[in-house]
Amino acid sequence: MFLMSDAARTVRFEPPAAGIGGMVISTLEEIMSTALMVVIAVAVVAVLAAAGFLLWSGLRTRRLRRRFGPEYDRAVERYGGRGAAERELLTRQRRHRRLDLRPLDPRRRERHREQWTRIQEHFVDAPEEAVGRADRLVTEVMGERGYPTEDVEERIAHLSVEHGRVLDQYRRGREIGRRAAEGTASTEELRQAMVHYRALLEELLAVPEEEGRDGPGDRIGAGGRATTPREGDAREPSG
User: Fold this and answer.
1) Residue 208: enclosing H or E segment and its boundaries?
2) For 132-153, what is each residue's pLDDT tens digit?
3) Short-list 138, 111, 145, CA closest to 202
4) What is the pTM of this model?
5) How far apart are CA 78 and CA 218, in angstroms?
6) Got the DSSP string for 153-202?
7) Roughly how many angstroms between the first and final C-alpha of the chain, as a whole number?
8) Contacts (Cβ under 8 Å, ≥6 apart) of 124
9) pLDDT of 20-73, one tens digit each?
């Protein structure tokens, strides 16, 4: 009979240690490689998203500057930064779209022009009273166009969307009118108030493009503003 020795009976079969270690290292390398690719992909997406946001933000800023004119910078100063100012201006645009704005009937437009001519003539004898009448006429035309006229701040906010380039003149005209009522405005200041009121009045009385194609006169272009060479060129009161 064949007998195994004690040494033979104690032999154990174990896999090579180096083989297990290599597999573990390889697995870890694959995991790390995948994780690195995920990190890189996330970083690329974040960079692209940031670039897209900056591009969109820049385009929005340019559109708002073009539409609101000087009112954009005024809003930035008032609300303490570009972000807050642009949110306010966008809110004004949304509210403005809900208004039922309409052009004036040609006969009403001509009637208001005649009223303005009489107010200018009245300025010679009673400048303070003429400035008050000018303010009331501008407010009347606003109402006929569909703008709210009860609250001054709301009125100015709505006007800023389409008439931002002359709105500061309207503010100065109102301020001079307030001082005129107190008896503290000079004749030259009253004359300037008339010029300021006329700047906005001319835009409010501008002829829509479709109505003015067959004849001369102020026309309303994109944004609701007059587009003739006389835009913003307010004539001073006679006298």
Assistant:
1) strand 207-208
2) 999 999 999 999 999 999 999 9
3) 138
4) 0.65
5) 33
6) HHHHHHHHHHHHHHHHHHHHHHHHHHHHHTT---HHHHHHHHHHHHHHHH
7) 144
8) 237, 238, 239
9) 666 666 776 677 777 667 777 677 666 666 666 555 557 778 998 988 888 999
